[in-house]
Amino acid sequence: MTRVPPEGLVLVPGGTLITATPEEGRALALTMARHMIHNIQPDLDQLQAGRPKYSANPDSLIACSQVVAIEFQTIAAANNYWRK
Predict the structure, then answer these.
(1) DSSP 8-state symbol, 3
(2) How many CB atoms lie within 10 A of CB 38?
(3) Angle between the 58-78 and 44-55 helix axes, to the nearest 10 degrees?
(4) Domains: count for the chain
(5) In a domain, 11, yes or no
(6) What angle do helix axes 22-40 and 58-78 make, rounded to 10 degrees?
């Protein structure tokens, strides 16, 4: 079994949700979503074996984007929506 390395199992990369810009927040949201998947399925062989099933399925892709959107919503709230 090929496992995700420990640095890929961090739930909040960098240890903070605070970002300088919405663009950085969106990138963090995407990274957090990927790390969440790695924590759920740390076996890279299994993870990659399932990729053909969901990578071409519109419903799966929409579900993935919803996860990123929820992560971004959390980051935006933590950053007070970048309003000062």
Answers:
(1) B
(2) 20
(3) 110
(4) 1
(5) no
(6) 120
Helix runs in the chain, H state only: 22-40, 44-55, 58-78
Assigned domain for 63 exists: yes
- Rounded Cα distance, 12 and 47, in Å: 21
Transcribe 4-17 into DSSP letters: PPGGGG-SSGGG--
Contact by Cβ (8 Å): 83, 22: no
12-56 pLDDT tens trace: 999 999 999 999 999 999 999 999 999 999 999 999 998 898 889
Print the domain residue range for 80: 21-39+57-84
The answer to whether the predicted template modeling score (pTM) of the entire model surpasses 0.90 is: no
